[in-house]
Amino acid sequence: MAHRHVTIALKEATRSQCRFRVGAVLVKGGRILGRSCNRRRNSARTDFRHATFHAEEMLMRSIDAPRRSEVYVARLSSTGAPMLARPCPRCQHLLVSCGVTLAHYTTSTGTTGTVHLADSNRRR
C-alpha cells in the first residue's frame, strides 16, 4: 500500500511548476485524505512573493489532518527520477502540530525513508 501512496505523491510532484518539484499525500488507515504539490507563493492560488510553499504546507492548508495520520512526500528531478524528499525541520514541526505521526519520503536511491515525528496527541 505504501508504494501506491508514494506513486501518488510522485504524480502530485509532476503538477508543480517549481524548480524542485515535490508532492505530498496525507493518509490515515490506508485512505487518502488529501494531496498537494509545492507552489510558488505568488501564484493565483497562494500569496506572498518570490518564494514557494512546501508541498507539506500546501497539504496542511487544504485539510484538517486527523491524529496519527501519515504523510508521503516525493520529489522529482528534472529528468523525472525520484530524489531525496525528507521534510525540512519547519515542515516536520508543522506536521507534528497538525497531528501527523509518520512522514515517508523518497530517496535518490529509489527507496523510501521514514521519519517518526513527535507524539501529536497534544493537539486534540
What does this structure look like?
This protein has 124 residues and is of the alpha+beta class. The protein has a single domain, classed as 3-Layer(aba) Sandwich (Cytidine Deaminase, domain 2), CATH 3.40.140. The chain contains 3 helices and 8 strands, in the order αββββαββαββ. Strands 1, 2, 5, 6, 7 and 8 form a 6-stranded mixed beta sheet that branches. A two-stranded antiparallel sheet has the order 3-4. β5 and β6 form a beta hairpin. The protein starts with a helix and ends in an 8-residue tail after the last strand. The C terminus is likely disordered.
Helices and strands in order:
Elements lengths: L1 H13 L6 E8 L2 E7 L1 E2 L11 E2 L1 H8 L6 E8 L5 E2 L5 H9 L2 E7 L5 E5 L8
Parallel strand pairs: 5-7
Antiparallel strand pairs: 1-2, 1-5, 3-4, 5-6, 7-8
